[in-house]
Design goal:
This protein is of the alpha/beta class. It is built from 17 helices and 14 strands. β10 and β11 form a beta hairpin. The longest helix has 34 residues.
Length: 540
């Protein structure tokens, strides 16, 4: 944070500075060291430089980012092809790399090199060599040779001075195969695991001891947020694939120590929220839709779901005496639970219903006779008019047929997405509808559908738990689609529900109050705290 604030302050001062020499010194950033730390710092500086130049209306050519390395190459731990790719990327970004250059001193505003080069700068960042912590270095324990304050340990990660003092991570100095233990994340994990097992053995009095043996999976370095090089998992990658591997490793690490929530927070930051196109997928996912733009769509989608449920009520879905109205959703011959009882009632009522039917038939016959009489009486004057209309309609039909032959309907949007009798719908119907919902009383099944549709509609219309309502809406759309009921022109239900998941209920909706309250309650539950499954950031 100190470095970040310093860099921002340099650009702000440079924007107000009128002296070109002073401004150039303010905009010169020097990083000593071309190891992992130095390269990652350089990568961040190069990208942040561009963002700061745009913010303060500064010419990028006035700014310098310089890397000084005493060795003949950068990233010496990596193979030559990967080093070359990293160097080319740095050159493309405008970084000045000075190899075989030793720094002999520094003064306020100056960096002094062995060959006599003097670089004027107000920002000099030193990354040459990683030390142990100052706390560890201050302990009266044996230090490792060339250890930079690191403490000497044996293969069990014990201090060579005391049998019950364990040292792990960057503070531990251990020689393996003639080389010091590298100060990397995997080294910290693996030394800590050995120490933990041996501490348990100490407590339980077991003779079994665990020895450290490194099992590193490779190395990778990111040069900013968009480019990196890696040799991990037996694969040498660069650019997009190296960054993708880096993010997968980071998310796996976070999943193991902080749960799903922290993985989602990481993904949001790295892919959805990061600005200035600093994600390796660019800025395609960083733009946000304001909550008030989909407001009317949210309310219209909710109204459509309400009307779907209301229309089913009008069709008799809640009138149990009318029998099942949802039988067509099942395969022929499959009867829903509860239908036999209704059929028995209908058979019992058939005796008094038959005379009423005969009466209605007689009345219908009388009406039909009257219609025939009127038709015969009006035939003389009606016939010419009918012939004229027929001729006109014939001409129109001829034009329509000609147009249809030249340009027919390309896509009939009123057709179902999946044919009701097709393979997919048949599989879904026989597996889920016939095999599951057919055993549910049809009254309960129809009531469930109606209540679900109206509840989803009201929730979306009022913006109440919109995310969950949108998920339920999509689930219903998938079910109807697989059942062969959804047509192409109804697919907008699904796409609109996806948009609703982006916080559409916070704008002029109940979620403005309900979501913060629910998140605070949820984050306080034992389950959320035990599994780190928080809603956004943890809250008290």
């Amino acid at each position: 944070m100190r470095l970040r604030h310093h860099v921002e302050h340099m650009f702000a001062k440079a924007a107000e500075e009128t002296d070109p020499a002073v401004r150039r010194r303010l905009l010169t950033f020097v990083v000593a060291g071309a190891g992992f730390t130095g390269m990652e710092m350089i990568g961040e500086l190069l990208e942040y430089r561009d963002a700061m130049c745009r913010k303060h209306y500064l010419d990028r050519s006035e700014s310098r980012v310089v890397n000084i390395e005493a060795l003949p190459s950068i990233l010496p731990i990596l193979e030559e092809p990967l080093r070359v790719k990293a160097e080319k990327y740095l050159a493309k970004m405008g970084c000045e790399v000075m190899l075989n250059a030793s720094i002999i001193g520094a003064e306020p505003g100056k960096v002094l090199c062995k060959d006599g080069t003097v670089i004027e700068t107000d920002t000099f960042i030193w990354t040459c060599g990683v030390k142990g912590s100052s706390f560890a270095a201050g302990l009266d324990l044996t230090k490792g040779e060339r250890g930079r304050g690191r403490l000497q340990v044996d293969a069990e990660m014990k201090s060579v001075d005391y049998p019950y003092a364990y040292v792990v991570g960057d503070n531990a100095f251990f020689i393996e195969n003639g080389k010091p233990l590298p100060q990397i994340v995997e080294g910290a994990h693996q030394t800590a695991e050995v120490a933990a097992k041996n501490i348990i053995a100490d407590i339980e009095g077991k003779a079994e001891r665990h020895q450290f043996k490194s099992a590193f999976h490779g190395f990778m370095v990111s040069l900013g947020g968009r480019y990196g090089v890696a040799n991990a998992g037996g694969m040498k990658t660069s650019g997009f694939f190296a960054m993708a591997m880096k993010h997968m490793i980071n998310m796996w690490y976070l999943l193991n120590i902080a749960g799903v929530n922290q993985v989602w927070e990481y993904a949001k930051h790295e892919f959805l929220d990061i600005k200035e196109r600093r994600s390796f997928i660019g800025g395609f996912a960083s733009w946000k839709v304001r909550g008030y733009w989909p407001l009317l769509l949210r309310m219209w989608l909710g109204l459509m779901w309400v009307m779907e449920g209301v229309n089913k009520i009008g069709e008799g879905w809640l009138t149990w005496s009318a029998g099942s109205k949802s039988g067509w959703m099942f395969s022929p011959g499959v009867k829903q639970a509860g239908i036999k009882a209704v059929e028995a009632v209908s058979a019992a009522s058939g005796e008094w219903a038959e005379p009423a039917t005969e009466t209605v038939s007689a009345a219908s016959g009388a009406v039909e006779a009257v219609v025939e009489a009127v038709s015969a009486a009006s035939g003389e004057w009606a016939e010419p008019a009918v012939e004229a209309v027929s001729a006109a309609s014939g001409a129109v039909q001829a034009v329509a047929e000609t147009a249809a032959k030249s340009f027919g309907k390309v896509w009939d949007l009123t057709k179902p997405i999946f044919d009701f009798n097709g393979g997919i719908s048949t599989w879904f119907r026989t597996t889920f509808m016939d095999g599951l919902f057919a055993y549910m009383p049809y009254q309960g099944f129809q009531a469930m559908i109606v209540v679900m549709e109206i509840a989803i509609g009201l929730a979306l219309f009022g913006g109440f738990f919109t995310w969950w309502a949108a998920v339920a809406s999509m689930a219903m759309c998938v079910i109807f689609t697989l059942s062969g009921m959804f047509a192409w022109d109804q697919l907008w239900f699904l796409f609109a529900a996806i948009l609703m998941m982006g916080g559409a209920g916070r704008s002029f909706g109940m979620d403005y109050w309900s979501v913060p309250f629910f998140k605070k309650w949820w984050n306080g539950t034992k389950f959320a705290r035990r599994w780190h499954f928080y809603a956004d950031d943890p809250t008290k």
